[in-house]
Each structure stands twice: as structure tokens, then as C-alpha cells.
Design goal:
It is a single chain. The chain is mostly helical. It has a single domain, classed as di-copper center containing domain from catechol oxidase (Orthogonal Bundle), CATH 1.10.1280.10. 31% of the residues lie in helices and 3% in strands. The protein contains 7 helices and 4 strands, in the order βαααααααβββ. The strands form 2 sheets. Strands 1-4 form a two-stranded parallel ribbon. It has a two-stranded antiparallel sheet with strand order 2-3. β2 and β3 form a beta hairpin. The longest helix is centred in the first third of the chain and has 19 residues. The protein is globular.
Length: 289
């Protein structure tokens, strides 16, 4: 059955409650922390050795689509009517929007230690203990806008820059690709030493706290953020059907720097051994409102 992912701003109170309850149930089961650990394990950067499948790589979109689907299926084993909503950060751009309300994801961290003290994922409720992270502390942390080094959420113009790209990805197939939809939406600076972030990466930095780096799954907003990233990829493919093919189509040649470091179209994605081709379309699985 094809299900529908909604904009989080259209959710009813009952829908928000069911989503939160399902997330907390997955956390109680221990499965949630498995998702956190998986993301940490597969967060491989340009400077690290081995295969990159989740970040700084052409398979950024299909890998996270599969990751999101697996999480959504875990939620649906708790409540079959729950789906992962999406957060359009070009529209809902302040801490005052319903996303951060006490009956949904809770608000910002306190200034002293970035600890989230409101909403269902606040540590004092006893339901959300951080067990797998690259930071200290067992409580969820946020730091909206990073006051010590302020950043803003991506604008419509920022997103349009990515959506207007005519190619999916380009060499060197990593964080330094200067063109292509993948890196413009993933949002890595295109020059070494440049600290200007874009789109997907800028959202992680605006939320701050646990959303910074490999342990970002510890914040449930991760899923709503990546649901919107997935929607953007889907829209880009619809708008550019002739240019939307996955690249690289063939593995980098023997002797090339990215040989064995990125996935080509015919490869399978670890850890699931899912053919990458199977994650290029989603219409048989879900749709967006």
C-alpha cells in the first residue's frame, strides 16, 4: 500500500501524538539507537579511507532514502498509520513554528549546556536517553541558530540554486564537486577552507547540538529534515527527466582517485545490499502531499 508523507505544518494534534508515540516506542525497543549507530558507522568523509555511501558522495540521496524507509517501517510496526512528515525549512524558519512545540518535537536547548528541556524528548521525562553519540552527555541538545557563530536556515533562493542544476553529480564525486544537484543540495563548501554551508548541511548547523555530525539521528528532527531532502530530490527528478539519471553510471576506472570509494549505478548499497537502482523512484512505496 502506498502511503503519504505530509508537511509537518498540516498535521493534526492526533497525528503528531501518534508520530511521537511511535518514535518513543521504537526508542524503548532499542531499535532507534541501532539507526543512530548505523549513521555513525557510515558517516565516512573525503579524508577517510574506504567506501563512502552516505555523505560526500553521489549515493547520498538513495542511501538516505533507504535509511528513511527502514525507519518508517519500524514506526509502522508500532502504528501502521504513521508516516514520516517533512519539514520545509524554506518556509518554517523560526523557533516559533509548530515543529518545535511542546506537543511535537520540543524546543531549543538552554543556553548553559544546550540541553532540551521541553517536549516529549526532553531528558527529564525519562524517555529519551542518548546512548550512541560522538558527544558527551546523555540528554538531547540543540542550539538554534548557533548564537556564538550565527547562521540562518536556507532560503528559497538557496534551494532554487540546487534545483536549477542541470546534472545530478560531477567529478570528483565528493564534497568538492563544484556543480551538480547532489552537492548543491547536500551543501558542502566547494573550496577547502571555506566555511560557507548550504541547504541540507546548513539545516544541521542551524539546529545544532546533536544535529551536528554523525550522531545527528539522535535528534528526531533528523527524519523530518531528510524527508524534505528526499522530496526535493523527487521534485528535481520530475522537473528534469532527461538529466535526472544517477551518476556515475560506471565505476571510476582503475587508478582513478575515487575507484572503490563511490557507488556507480549498478552497485548495491550497504548495509542492506539493496540495488541502488531500486531507490531511484518511490511512487510504488509512498507519495508526498
Amino acid at each position: 500500500m502506498v502511503h503519504t508523507r505530509q508537511n509537518q505544518r498540516t498535521l493534526t494534534k492526533a497525528q503528531k501524538r501518534r508520530f511521537v508515540d511511535a518514535v518513543l516506542a521504537v526508542k524503548r525497543s532499542g531499535r532507534y539507537d541501532e539507526f543512530v549507530r548505523m549513521h555513525i558507522d557510515f558517516y565516512v568523509g573525503d579524508g577517510d579511507g574506504g567506501l563512502r555511501v552516505a555523505h560526500m558522495t553521489p549515493s547520498f540521496f538513495p542511501w538516505h532514502r533507504k535509511f528513511l524507509l527502514e525507519f518508517e517501517r519500524a514506526l509502522q510496526r508500532v502504528d501502521p498509520g504513521v508516516t514520516v512528515p517533512y519539514w520545509d525549512w524554506t518556509v518554517d524558519r523560526t523557533p516559533a513554528v509548530s515543529l518545535w512545540a511542546d506537543d511535537f518535537l520540543g524546543g531549543n536547548g538552554r543556553r548553559s549546556d544546550r540541553r532540551v528541556t521541553s517536549g516529549p524528548f526532553a531528558h527529564h521525562h525519562g524517555h529519551w536517553k542518548i546512548r550512541a553519540a560522538v558527544t558527551d552527555g546523555d540528554f538531547l541538545m540543540r542550539d538554534f541558530g548557533r548564537p556564538k557563530s550565527p547562521v540562518g536556515l536556507p532560503s528559497k533562493a538557496d534551494l532554487a540554486d540546487a534545483m536549477n542544476q542541470s546534472e545530478y553529480d560531477v567529478e570528483p564525486w565528493n564534497s568538492l564537486s563544484t556543480r551538480g544537484f547532489r552537492n548543491r543540495l547536500e551543501g558542502w563548501p566547494v573550496r577547502r577552507g571555506d566555511r560557507t554551508w548550504f541547504n541540507h548541511n546548513l539545516v544541521h548547523r542551524w539546529v545544532g547540538g546533536h544535529m551536528l555530525g554523525a550522531g545527528s539521528v539522535n535528534d528526531p528532527v533528523f527524519w523530518l529534515h531528510h524527508s524534505f531532502v528526499d522530496l526535493c530530490w523527487s521534485r528535481w527528478r520530475q522537473r528534469r527527466p532527461k538529466a535526472a539519471r544517477y551518476l556515475p553510471a560506471q565505476a571510476p576506472a582503475l587508478g582513478e582517485a575515487q575507484r572503490g570509494r563511490v557507488l556507480a549505478l549498478g552497485d548495491t548499497m550497504p548495509p542492506w545490499d539493496t540495488p541502488l537502482r531500486d531507490m531511484l523512484e518511490h511512487k510504488s512505496l509512498y507519495r508526498y502531499e
